[in-house]
């Protein structure tokens, strides 16, 4: 046995106090119960000219439960695409281990139950949509007749059924993205891995993709997808994982992230007159003048009663008081700033 193979086998035997069967399969309860499990997964790249090593992903410990939708967030170069390519076998890890439904990712068997849409899929542009999906179905193990029937069904589901004979060279970017999603789903996988599935889609296309992802969740499919469109992540995901500079920084439900943030309150007053808050409130109230109203934002709910008392005493016409929870985008940006990720410091991966 080669030294690297011996090391991997040794690590597999020790992970989570689990054991290996005669074929080397991880038999720990966590690995077999999780859809995706990684332990210490690392990928580094070495420049062949400078011999400098850059980090793609470092010591990633991630567990995706069966049937959940997990959003994978991070700026460009954070390691999202590297992680997904490691899981589907397009990259080999530098170190660490990962399993899909209990099967080590080094084995082709780990990919039989998943569908994958890369960020930039390649298409044979001389095929039409129906032919391409039939090819994808056959490569995924479907018989000829079943692949043909499912190709027609999925063309309709992704909004391409009215022109099944159109050559792919005439497809728009959004149409190709929809076709790629159909190809990932045609064999009804148990795990769906999507890299930027909303890329290139108009609002109607984004809505259709959201509905497809929700439909897959309802049928029990596990979904792991990366995205820069945070409102979609907020709508779709059971949990979100934030990766920055190759390191998994935080993982939680959207509710946990939002509830843990400080709550602001927005107060709307009729009229555009500027009001001057008392000194004890001045640091906690932000005012914005609009043509027919004044909007005030109180930065902490403990100052709400004092702000309302001041406004009423000043004769202001209070029209609305609305709690404002931080959005997922605001929380993501705050997390990125905490670890020093700025627009200038981001690198392309």
Quick description:
With 349 residues, the protein is α/β, with parallel strands linked by helices. The chain has helices at residues 3-14, 29-33, 80-87, 129-139, 144-157, 173-185, 203-218, 230-236, 254-259, 279-282, 304-313, 328-338; strands spanning 34-46, 53-65, 69-73, 95-100, 103-104, 114-117, 191-195, 222-226, 239-244, 247-253, 264-270, 285-290, 293-298, 318-324.
Please explain how this structure is put together.
Strands 6-7-8-3-9-10 form a 6-stranded mixed beta sheet, sandwiched between helices. A 4-stranded antiparallel beta sheet has the order 2-1-4-5. Strands 12-13-11-14 form a 4-stranded antiparallel beta sheet, covered by helices on one side. Helix content is 34%, strand content 26%. It has a domain at 262-324: Alpha-Beta Plaits (2-Layer Sandwich), CATH 3.30.70. The chain is an alpha/beta fold. A hairpin with a 6-residue loop joins β1 and β2. It starts with a helix and ends in an 11-residue tail after the last helix. The radius of gyration is 25 Å and the shape is globular. The chain is built from 12 helices and 14 strands.
End-to-end separation in angstroms reads 34 Å
Number of helices: 12
CATH architecture of the domain at 262-324: 2-Layer Sandwich
Order of H and E elements: HHEEEHEEEHHHEHEHEEHEHEEHEH
Overall, the morphology is: globular
List low-pLDDT spans.
5-10, 19-28, 343-349
Fold-level CATH name of the domain at 262-324: Alpha-Beta Plaits
What is the CATH class of the domain at 262-324?
A: Alpha Beta
Mean pLDDT: 83
Radius of gyration: 25 Å
């Amino acid at each position: 046995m080669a030294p690297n193979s011996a090391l991997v086998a040794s690590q597999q035997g020790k992970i989570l106090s689990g054991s290996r069967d005669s074929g080397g399969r991880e038999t720990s309860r966590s690995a077999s119960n999780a859809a995706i499990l990684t332990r210490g997964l690392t990928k580094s790249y070495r420049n062949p000219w400078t011999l400098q090593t850059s980090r793609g992903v470092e010591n990633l410990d991630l567990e995706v439960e069966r049937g959940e939708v997990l959003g994978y967030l991070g700026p460009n170069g954070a390691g999202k695409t590297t992680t997904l390519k490691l899981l589907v076998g397009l990259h080999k890890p530098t170190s660490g281990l990962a399993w899909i439904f209990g099967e080590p990712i080094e084995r082709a068997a780990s990919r039989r139950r998943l569908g994958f849409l890369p960020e930039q899929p390649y298409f044979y542009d001389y095929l039409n949509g129906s032919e391409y999906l039939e090819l994808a179905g056959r490569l995924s193990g479907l018989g000829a007749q079943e692949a043909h029937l499912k190709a027609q069904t999925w063309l309709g589901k992704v909004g391409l059924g009215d022109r099944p004979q159109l050559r792919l060279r005439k497809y728009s970017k959004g149409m190709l993205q929809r076709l790629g999603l159909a190809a990932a789903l045609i064999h009804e996988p148990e795990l769906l891995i999507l890299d930027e599935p909303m890329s290139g889609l108009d609002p109607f296309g984004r809505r259709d993709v959201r509905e497809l992802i929700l439909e897959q969740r309802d049928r029990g499919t596990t979904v792991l997808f990366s995205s820069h469109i945070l409102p979609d992540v907020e709508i779709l995901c059971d949990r979100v994982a934030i990766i920055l500079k190759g390191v998994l920084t935080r993982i939680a439900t959207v509710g946990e992230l939002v509830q843990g943030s400080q709550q602001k309150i927005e107060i709307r007053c009729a009229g555009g007159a500027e009001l001057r808050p008392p000194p004890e409130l001045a640091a906690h109230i932000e005012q914005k003048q609009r043509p027919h109203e004044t909007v005030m934002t109180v930065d902490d709910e403990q100052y709400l009663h004092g702000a309302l008392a001041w406004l009423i005493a000043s004769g202001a016409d209070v029209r609305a008081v609305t709690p404002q929870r931080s959005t997922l985008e605001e929380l993501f940006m705050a997390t990125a700033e905490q670890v020093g990720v700025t627009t200038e410091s981001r690198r392309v991966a």
